[in-house]
Amino acid sequence: MKNKVKAIFSAVLAAIMAAGLSLGTLAADEADEEDIAVPTAKEIAERKLIAAGVPFGVKFHTDGVVIVGICGNCGPAADAGLRKGDVITAVDGVRVGSVGEFAEKIQNSNGAQVTLEYRSGGLAHTATIQPIQDENGAYKLGIWIKDSAAGIGTVTFIEPETMLFAGLGHGICDSDSGALVPFAYGSAEEVSLSGITPGRAGAPGELRGSFTGHKQGKLIKNTDAGIYGVLNELPEALLEELYPVGRSSEVKEGKAYIFTTVDGGGRQKYEIEISKIDSSASGRNFSVRVTDKALLEKTGGIVQGMSGSPIIQNGKLIGAVTHVLVSNPTEGYGIFIENMLSELSEDTVSETCLAA
C-alpha cells in the first residue's frame, strides 16, 4: 500500500514473490479473550466451501516487538548480536507486547544492563545489553521496532456454518529471517480498491487500496499456509458460490480458473493453466500461468494482493494462488486447498515461512 503504509514485511524469495501486498504499520485492535471453536480439517473438507476471491484488509498485532532496523554496524544491540527480523518478547523477565512498553522498560533502566529474551530464526535466545543515552538523554539500544502491520490480500474460502475463513495461502513473514511473524491478535477489515500497478518482468505489480474503517471479522492464526479468522457475517453475494473440496490427488495439469477481484468490476472468473504438480511440497504445490486475456490486460498477470485467490478445477475448490514469478508476472505458484485446511488441525505454528 504505497499511499498508506511503508513496506516492512514484503515477502520475497529470489525470483519468487508472495502475491499478497507488502505489510506496513497500523494499529491493530485490542486483544479479545473470546474463545473460537475451530472445526477440524476433516470436518471442513466434508463440507462445501464458499470460493471467495474478494479482497480483505489485515490488521495484525505481533506477539512481542519486531526489530525492523539496526542503527549502523555498532551500538548495544548490534554488539550483542541482535539483527533485523528478531522478535523481542521480554525485558528483564517481563513480557513486552508493544513499542511503548518496550521503550518504557529501556528508559526506566537508567542505563543499567537489561536482559532481553528474543526469537531469531525460530530459536529462543537471551542477551544482556547496556543501553546508551542519545543526544536528548533518552536511553536507547540502537534499534527500530514495530508491533503491528497492515496490508491487503484475498480471501480463499469461507466455511458458511462457522464463518471461518482463510486467505493469502502463505504466511505473513519477516523478509530477512524468513520466519513467520509471531501472531498475537488482529482483525479482518473491509478495503476499497483504488487502482492497479500492472506487473512486468523484474517488477511485480500490486493492487492499491485503503481501509474503509469497517471491521469484517477477527483473525485467529498466522501459518505457513495462510492467515485464518472468523467473519462477523457472511457476504450475501457469495452465499451461492459453494464448491466441494478437491483433494490433491484430483488436481490435474491443464485448464482451471480463479476467482479474484482486481478493480471496480468486482469478483470475476479468469482462466489459468496448471502445470508441474508436486504433491510432496508443503507450499508451492503447482505452477500457475495466467492465460485469460482480460486479466493480462488489467494486471499483466499475478500481482500483489491476489494472493489467496481460489482456484477451481472440474467443479471443485482445489487451491489458491500464492506467489508470482518476479521474472515473469504471468506465472506463479499455488497451494493445495488440502494444505490450507491441514493448518486448522495443527496445535502449533511453524516458525519457517514458505513465502519469504
Overview of the structural elements:
The chain is mostly beta strands and 356 residues long. The chain folds into 2 domains: 12-58 and 155-345; 72-141, Pdz3 Domain (Roll), CATH 2.30.42.10. Helix content is 9%, strand content 45%. The chain has helices at residues 41-45, 76-79, 99-107, 293-299, 337-342; strands spanning 12-13, 16-18, 49-70, 87-91, 94-95, 114-120, 123-129, 132-133, 139-140, 143-159, 164-167, 183-197, 206-223, 226-231, 242-243, 254-261, 267-275, 286-290, 310-313, 316-325, 328-336. A 6-stranded antiparallel barrel has the order 16-17-18-21-20-19. It has a 6-stranded antiparallel beta barrel with strand order 3-10-11-14-13-12. A hairpin with a 2-residue loop joins strand 19 (310-313) and strand 20.
Number of separate structural domains: 2
Q: Tell me about the largest β-sheet.
A: 6 strands, antiparallel, barrel
DSSP strand count: 21
How much β-strand is present in the residues?
Answer: 35-45%
Strand order of the largest sheet: 16-17-18-21-20-19
The topology string of helices and strands comes to EEHEHEEHEEEEEEEEEEEEEHEEEH
> What is the 3D form?
elongated
Q: Gap between N and C termini, in Å?
A: 18 Å
| Strand-pairing-aware structural class | mainly beta
The overall pLDDT, averaged over residues, is 83
Spans of at least 5 consecutive residues whose pLDDT stays below 50 are 1-29, 347-356
Radius of gyration: 21 Å
**Separate helix tally:** 5
> Which bin fits the share of residues in helices?
under 10%
